[in-house]
Design a protein that fits this description.
The complex is a heterodimer of chains A (about 220) and B (about 425).
Chain A (H helix, E strand, L loop, with lengths): L2 E9 L7 E10 L4 E5 L6 H8 L7 E6 L2 E2 L5 H11 E4 L11 H9 L10 H11 L16 H13 L5 E5 L7 H17 L3 E6 L10 E4 H4 L4
Parallel strand pairs in A: 3-8, 3-9, 6-7, 7-8
Antiparallel strand pairs in A: 1-2, 1-4, 4-5
Helix pairs in contact in A: 3-4, 3-5, 5-6
Chain B lengths: L1 H11 L1 H33 L7 E5 L3 H9 L9 E2 H8 L4 E13 L2 E6 L2 H5 L1 E2 L3 E2 L2 E4 L7 E4 L1 H7 L6 E6 L8 E13 L9 E5 H12 L22 E2 L1 E6 L5 H9 L6 E4 L1 H44 L1 H10 L3 H42 L10 H17 L1 H13 L4
Parallel strand pairs in B: 4-11, 8-10
Antiparallel strand pairs in B: 1-13, 1-14, 2-12, 3-4, 3-9, 3-13, 5-6, 7-10, 8-11, 9-10
The chains are: A alpha/beta (about 220), B alpha+beta (about 425).
Chain lengths: ~220, ~425
């Protein structure tokens, strides 16, 4: 199992009685592409933060790649995330005053894994496989189009060869064409690197591409 | 990568970064500048006279005596008799004696009447004796030796003839028209009041005054060559300096002079009087230092404010870094590093500006204030100050750094 949640409860820090997530049992097998849908504010991001080790739950077991995140120290969880989990957001995926290469180097700097080749050598093929032209690599990110930025974001998420990729509404800021491009690129990469994908969105139109489709309300008792 | 982010982040916010950088460099300029000037002024001051064991004058305050005899500042309240001088100068303990007479001026510069011994025995700083850049000490009654500054500003050369006036006023009504003196020597710069002094023989002063007694604008032209030597022996002088055969007798001789029965005399040790004077200045020094520290506090608070403002703009960046695996303390140190970089840049700029200022203004400061400043700002004290500035900056930056840290941690608890 790639992900396993067991008896998990996440509450609001300001109001410990208010539950955001109550999950009895949920799992994702290796190499699945999971689509979780639900309306905004229903706790989708919270679920992703939990799985990536950013968030602590009040009780329950969170297991990723067979390792119990809830039993790790914060520092270990941070390292685990850098090494094994790639994360793509809807926006603000990249540091705007760095260029594409530097953004990816930044992600690399937090992990001991990833390509042992020196910076540019490891990053170039990745950007090329994502159809980001080389003339864009050294421009500040803000000068790239949204579509290009999102593709650079994927590269950034992949550079440390994570086993799990988490995506939080990554296409919601893109137009139709870019959305299709993004998804096809994403799926082929997931396939190629034998990764597991956890994708969260409110756009049901995308569900067809995934092997496992679930509503958040099926997973989370509170939603 | 850590350093790279910090640098690029700062470059991305050039406007506010440059402002706080400038504030810090101003603070550095003030801090180092004041410290430097303070130190140099003290050294300059202390080196005005050395090698003189006692200075003797009429019974007035010791600071007063020091000020007018060495610094040519203020007016002597009273004179002392030539007899008293001769008696003491002939004492067995005395190695040499230099009488001086003040009270006249030339174009605003003080005239000092003395003997040729002055050029031989007077020393300043690190036992430097007076040297001539041109000419030599006076011999004749109407010979004059100029201090470096006088010659330079008034544009005099060897052989020039000048007139001297009574009283320290550049446009004086009692101009001794007949007192023409010839420049026979120009001294090399000393960084002391010697540079601003016009030196003549004691007899020259007497001749000048004798000439005026014959009436103002008198018809008869006064033939200087008719003056007899003994007519020109001074009856009183302002003060005299003593070099003793042995240091041991200094205090005894000082006491004897202070107790001199024939007239009220005061003998001072220049070193002692100088440190008394410097203590008075000490309060002023402390105020200056305090002010410069306050300037630093202001600059450093400005730096903190700029960084604190940036935290709000960078919340997405902080979140991203956390997601990438950065621990919360990474963010803390990133902010501190940015503060450090701004501070270092400010230090470099401030120090460079100070260095340039001293290099360019050094000459005019010397000319106008007799203040000799070298451009050597890198003293041990200077380094302590820089260290202190860095510490202050890092401390002020702790507030935005803590803010960033707690914001980073907040993602743990959503």
């Amino acid at each position: 199992m790639m992900i396993e949640l067991d008896g998990v409860s996440v509450t609001q820090p300001s109001a410990p009685d208010l539950s955001i997530l109550e999950i009895d049992n949920w799992s994702v097998a290796d190499r699945q592409t999971v689509f979780v849908h639900g309306p905004s504010g229903s706790g989708k991001s919270t679920l992703l933060n939990l799985v990536s080790g950013l968030l602590e739950c009040r009780e329950g077991g969170v297991s990723v790649l067979g390792e119990r995140l809830d039993q790790m120290s914060r520092r270990r969880r941070d390292r685990f995330r850098a090494n094994h989990i790639g994360y793509v957001f809807q926006r603000f995926n990249l540091v705007h005053y760095l260029n594409a290469i530097e953004n990816i180097e930044l992600a690399r700097s937090f992990s001991e894994r990833g390509d042992r080749r020196t910076g540019a050598d490891a990053i170039r093929p990745l950007l090329e496989s994502l159809n980001v032209a080389s003339r864009e690599w050294h421009k500040p990110i803000s000068q790239l189009s949204m579509g290009q930025q999102q593709r650079v974001a994927i590269a950034r998420a992949l550079v440390n060869r994570p086993e799990l990729l988490v995506a939080d509404e990554p296409t919601s800021s893109l137009d139709q064409d870019n959305r299709d491009t993004f998804l096809s690129v994403l799926m082929s990469i997931i396939e190629e690197h034998k990764m597991t994908l956890l994708f969260v969105s409110h756009d049901m139109g995308l569900a067809q591409h995934f092997t496992q489709v679930q509503a958040l309300s099926e997973i989370n008792r509170v939603a | 990568m850590f350093l790279k982010i910090a640098i690029k982040s700062l470059l991305n916010r050039k406007g506010s970064v440059i402002m706080s950088l400038l504030a810090i460099s101003v603070a550095i300029f003030v801090l180092l500048g004041i410290e430097h000037i303070r130190q140099q002024a003290r050294d300059s001051f202390a080196s005005t006279v050395s090698g003189v064991d006692l200075i003797v004058g009429a019974k007035t305050g010791s600071l007063n005596l020091l000020l007018y005899s060495v610094f040519r500042v203020g007016t002597p309240t009273d004179n002392i008799s030539w007899k008293a001088y001769q008696e003491i100068a002939e004492s067995k303990d005395v190695a040499w004696a230099i009488p001086i007479s003040l009270g006249d001026s030339h174009n605003g510069y003080r005239v000092l009447g003395t003997t040729p011994d002055y050029f031989e025995h007077f020393s300043f700083g690190n036992k430097h004796t007076l040297e001539f850049v041109e000419g030599e000490a006076f011999e004749g009654v109407f010979d004059v030796v100029l201090g470096a500054e006088v010659a330079r500003t008034l544009g005099y050369a060897l052989g020039d003839e000048i007139t001297l006036a009574h009283g320290v006023v550049s446009t004086s009504f009692s101009l001794h028209e007949n007192s023409l003196f010839t420049v026979v020597g120009i001294l090399s710069p000393t960084g002391t009041p010697v540079d601003q002094t016009v030196h003549v023989q004691l007899q020259g002063i007497e001749a000048m005054h004798a000439g005026s007694e014959s009436g103002f604008g008198g018809a008869a032209s006064y033939d200087q060559s008719q003056l007899e030597a003994d007519e020109l022996e001074p009856k009183s002088i302002t003060a005299f300096m003593l070099g003793l055969k042995s240091r041991m007798v200094t205090f005894r001789l000082q006491r004897e002079i202070n107790d001199y029965s024939a007239e009220p005399l005061l003998a001072i040790l220049p070193g002692v009087a100088l440190s008394e004077l410097w203590q008075m200045v000490g309060v002023f020094e402390s105020v200056l230092r305090l002010i410069s520290m306050l300037v630093l506090v202001a600059a450093v608070l400005g730096l903190g404010a700029v960084l604190l403002a940036s935290v709000r703009e960078r919340s997405h960046e902080i979140h991203l870094l956390r997601v990438l695996g950065a621990p919360s303390y990474y963010l803390f140190f990133l902010m501190e590093l940015e503060a450090l970089l701004i501070c270092l840049a400010g230090i470099v700029l401030g120090t460079a500006c100070l260095y340039l200022c001293l290099a360019f203004l050094g000459d005019s400061l010397f000319a106008n204030f007799g203040l000799h400043l070298d451009a050597g700002v890198f003293t041990q004290d200077g380094l302590v100050i820089l260290f202190f500035v860095l510490a202050a900056a890092l401390t002020a930056a702790a507030i935005p750094s803590m803010r960033v840290y707690s914001q980073a941690k907040a993602y743990n608890v959503q």
